[in-house]
Every structure is written in structure tokens, then in C-alpha cells.
Amino acid sequence: MTKKIASSLLILLLLIPLSGCWDYRGLDELTIVTGVAIDKKPEEDIYQLTYEIVDLIEPIKEKGPNRKLIESEGKTIFEAVRNAKRRVSNKLYFGHSELIIICEEIARNEDLNVVLDFFIRDSECRETINVVVSQEKTARDIIASEGIGHTVISNEILEILEDDKKITSSILSVELYRLFNIMGAEGKELALPAFHIVQNDGKPTAETNGTAVFKDNKLVGFLSPEESKYFLFIVNEIEGGIFTVASSGQRPDISFEIYNNDTNLSFEYKDEKLKIKIKTTTVVFLGEFMRQFAPLDEKELNALEETAEKELEDKIRNVVKKLQTEFGSDIFGFGNMIYKKDFRLWRQLKDNWDEHFKSLDLEVEADIRIMNTATIK
User: Nearest-CA neighbor of 38 among 92, 83, 11, 76?
Assistant: First the structure.
């Protein structure tokens, strides 16, 4: 009898989770946010948020989903989000959000860890949402621009972020959870993708424009798209893209398509002097040679490889030097590498890491191998 009662209770307990979703809401009860731009009124010290939402009323068969923009204000981010309810019948739903855009003013003057606190705490927001910095006057300018391949600009920017390091290698996409991991890491500073507005066919659209460099969670400057490529080489995030080289003179006349790359970082500390060693091994295809159209022999190929190696080494040195002298920001994670590999040495260096980073020596070695010349015989 006891067994029958216990079995019946167990069956009843198992039925409880099968009763359906306790917090179920239909699509007609949701205002789905795909992206949010964060600006601020400095004179009033209040945040201005602009949300891109998917319009579920109009049909989407012919031209895809439509979008609308909603704006709200508040003394905090959370208050601004709730205040949007004053303008829409349904609460904002962030479960499908893909993008957060921070205006340059907030990025320069406020701790990003504080500004984005709501999004990491909120149960609806995905930890994989991407974060970018606007180089326009406001973040709203970016989210209000028109997409080329998508009607929803947040979807367009997301695809650009996901594909860039395989195609052009000019930015490093950073998801929300990675952003907080970097800000909490020893010996590493934050770097985020930067976007600006360009005219395309007479219409404003968003375009990547290099890397936003942070120091102590605040924006201190930008790397150009070209400089960002060599930043990606250093942090081993290159998966493709084009590497141009000048075979003679100043103007690049060779285009190498990057097939794969592997970067190895190491360090040496001797006589109280720190040296960082960067070793890159890159396999490329010769995609364009604007000087001659003829099969290249082994001697010529070796000469091209040596020229490309020297070019890559110089570019990497220049990027590191710029971060040392202009920004003083270790976005490469050199300090984090020491922290992980030699904690005793890191404890010795970390209190004055800024000075050590600015004065460290650099040894760069590039190994480039041309695997295919695509020559028509």
C-alpha cells in the first residue's frame, strides 16, 4: 500500500513540469527588441535609449521583417527601459536582442562595467549579445541607419561582426560575456568594434571603422581598420582577409589572401627588462600581382615571401608602439599571458604594469608561406 501511495505521488510530481510554460506570452503580447542604442543628455544627466523593434503587424513575405524605433529616457538604464512602457502597449522583450551600441561620449566618460550592468543582470538578455561603439555624434545615428542586405539594421551589423575576421579582418567582435570577462581579467584591457555612417547609393548605412581602445574600462582612442588587422594578428584572431604588400616602391601591388594564421606569444624577463616575443605563421594565396602576368619561379616566390614577412613584422611593431605611446593600453593581453604562465613574476610586475607595458622590448618574427599563385598557364 505504501508503495502504491509513493508511486502515485511520484507520478503527480512528474506531471507538474508537463503542465506548460508558467510565464508563456504570445507574440501579440511582446515588443521584440533586436538592438538598443545608448546615449545621454549630459546637461540633464539622463540616459536616452533607442530600441529597434520588429514590427509583427505588417506582412513580411516580400521584403522581410519591418522595423520601428522606440525611444525612452531615465536616470538609470533600467529606468529608461521601463519608461518605454509609457509609449508601447507591451513590455520590451530582450530575449532576441543582438546588439548594444554605446555612444562615444558615454564610452569616454563612464565606466563601461557600470553602464552595461543591467544587460548582464537581466534574465531576458542574452550573454551573447554583441557590443559596439558609435563614432557618430550619437549611438542612435547607427541604429537609425538603413541596412543593405536586411531591413533590420541590428541583423545586418550582427552578420558583419560574425563574418568580418573571415573576410576582411578589420574588427574583433566582442560578446557581452566576453566583455565582462576581459574587464575583470588581470593584465588585459578592452577593445570593441567601432562603427560609423557612410553614404551608400545616397542612403546612410553603418560600416565598420576599426577598433575602439579602452583603458580602465573607458575609451581612450581608436585604431584604424588597417591597424586593427595587425591587432588581430597579434591576438591570433585572423581567420581570413587580404594582406597587401608593396613589392617595390610605396604603393601596394600584391594582394595575398590569408588562408590561415597561427600566432604564438611568449616573454622573457632578464635583468629587470621585459621582452615580448611574437611569432606568426601564415599561409596565403597570391590573389593579385599588379606588376606582371607570368608564372613565378621559386626564387621569385621566396623573394615575395621575404618582402611580405618584413612588411608584416613592421606593421605589428607599429601597432604595438602606438598602443604603448599613445594609449598606454594593453589590449593584447601581454600582462594576462604573464599572469597565466608565471604568477610569481606577475605579482612582481602588476603594480607598475602600465610602465612595464610602455617600456617593454618587442621581438617579432613572421613566417609567410605562399601555397598557391593561381597563375593561368
Answer: 76
How many other C-beta atoms can be found within 10 angstroms of the C-beta atom of residue 257? 16
Q: Write down how long the chain is.
A: 377
**Angle, alpha carbons 107-111-115 (nearest 5°):** 80
Query: Domains in the chain, ordered, with CATH?
Result: 25-223 (no CATH), 229-377 (3.30.300.210)
pLDDT in tens, the chain (377 residues): 577 777 777 776 776 666 555 454 545 567 889 999 999 988 888 999 999 998 766 655 555 678 899 999 999 999 999 999 888 888 888 888 999 999 999 999 999 999 999 999 988 888 999 999 999 999 999 999 988 878 889 999 999 999 998 899 999 999 999 999 999 999 999 999 999 999 998 889 999 999 999 999 999 999 999 999 999 999 999 999 999 998 877 788 889 999 999 999 999 999 889 999 999 999 999 888 887 666 777 888 898 999 999 999 999 999 999 999 999 999 999 999 999 999 999 999 999 999 999 999 999 999 999 998 876 55
Task: Write a three-state SS string for 33-67.
Answer: EEEEEEEEECCCCEEEEEEEEEECCCCCCCCCCEE
SS3 237: coil
CA distance 130 to 115: 15
Cell numbers 567582435: residue: 173
Alpha helices by DSSP H, the chain: 2-15, 77-83, 104-109, 112-115, 117-121, 140-143, 153-167, 176-183, 225-234, 298-322, 334-341, 343-349, 353-359
**DSSP conformation letters of 366-377:** EEEEEEE-----
Q: What is the distance between the alpha carbons of residues 315 and 230, in angstroms, rounded to a whole number?
A: 7
Grid coordinates given for 176: 557581452
CA distance 259 to 369: 10
Task: Show Cβ contacts of residue 171 under 8 Å, excluding neighbours closer than 6 positions.
Answer: 161, 164, 165, 193, 194, 208, 210, 211, 225, 228
The span from the CA of 123 to the CA of 259, in Å, is: 40
